[in-house]
Amino acid sequence: MKADPAVQRRLLELADVDAELNRINHRRRTLPELEEIGQAERDQQAKRDSLVSSQTSFDDLDQEVKRLEAEVEQVRAREERDRTLMESGGSAKQMEDLQHELETLSRRRGALEDDLLEVMERREATETEVGYAREAVSAADTTLEDAQRRRDEAQKDLDTAEAKRQAERASFVQEIPENLLTLYDRIRQQRGAGAGLFQAGRCGVCRIELDRAALTHVREAPADEVVRCEECGAIMVRTKESGL
Questions:
Q1: Could you tell me if 82 and 126 are in contact, meaning their C-beta atoms sit under 8 angstroms apart?
Q2: End-to-end C-alpha distance for the chain, whole angstroms
Q3: Which of 4, 45, 102, 172 would bridge with 14, disulfide CB 3.0–4.6 Å?
Q4: HEC per residue, the chain
Q5: Which pLDDT belongs to residue 244?
Q6: Based on the number of CB atoms within 10 Å of its own CB, is 16 exposed (0-12), middle (13-18) or buried (19 or more)?
Q7: What angle do CA 84, 86, 88 make, to 5 degrees?
Q8: Phi/psi at 208 (nearest 5 deg)?
Q9: Cα(59)–Cα(174) distance, rounded to whole angstroms?
Q10: What is the mean pLDDT of each run of 10 residues along the chain (244 residues)?
Q11: Which of 184, 244, 198 is CA-nearest to residue 11?
Q12: What is the pTM of this model?
């Protein structure tokens, strides 16, 4: 393939732009904020799970408190009824039975009140845990939002840089013949880089030093001949810096 040496030199500028576009895409995929977001999301979910667990425990204890309170009230109501019956009088047997029932109810109420106190203390402790869990969720939300904000800012900067480089690329490709551009793009897609400066006997893409025969071919090739590396296939652009 033939191409004007000046046009071939434009490939070096195009290659620089493409290399920068590759770096931009690499940075986009490897932004440290992406890992931070992943960790923050995992931490947020763990904190939310902990909150749900604490809230469930609190709700269960709250229901137990209400149940015990209801039982205590039932026992008290029955004690009140028995006292009223005793005050109204009756046979000795009835009075004895009522007194016995009152003693039983008193023991029952005492046991229920002890249970109620213990459950209320547990509920209070769990309520404190719920508060801490809510604060932890809020902090995790803030951490995630901060990482997402910094990611968005970084991506915005990359978008700006990419748009600038894409505009430069569009300007360069207009000056390169279609057949040469097609060859360059095909090599770039296969190898990651389509062209490089030939310098000090080395390919500018794979950096492999040419053997004597290949070096002689490059030296003797006409200036407008498109020379390719035998190792990586990239276009080797010759300039005054090539040392030929």
A1: no
A2: 20
A3: 172
A4: CECCHHHHHHHHHHHHHHHHHHHHHHHHHCCHHHHHHHHHHHHHHHHHHHHHHHHHHHHHHHHHHHHHHHHHHHHHHHHHHHHHHHHHCCCHHHHHHHHHHHHHHHHHHHHHHHHHHHHHHHHHHHHHHHHHHHHHHHHHHHHHHHHHHHHHHHHHHHHHHHHHHHHHHHHHHCCCCHHHHHHHHHHHHHHCCCEEECECCECCCCCCECCHHHHHHHHHCCCCECEECCCCCCEEECCHHHCC
A5: 67
A6: middle
A7: 70
A8: -85, 135
A9: 70
A10: 93 96 96 97 98 97 97 96 87 88 95 97 97 98 98 97 96 93 94 93 93 90 94 94 80
A11: 184
A12: 0.74
- Report yes or no: 124 and 97 within 8 Å, Cβ to Cβ: no
CA 13: distance to chain centroid? 36
Rounded distance between C-alpha atoms, residue 23 and residue 182, angstroms: 22
Give me the amino acid identity at 126: T
Topology, domain 31-166: Helix Hairpins (1.10.287)
Distance CA 25, CA 27 (A): 5
pLDDT of residue 92: 85
- Domains of the chain, by residue range, sit at 5-25+177-238, 31-166
Compute the distance between CA of residue 194 and CA of residue 93 in angstroms, rounded to an integer: 111
The pairing of strands 195-197 and 235-237 is parallel
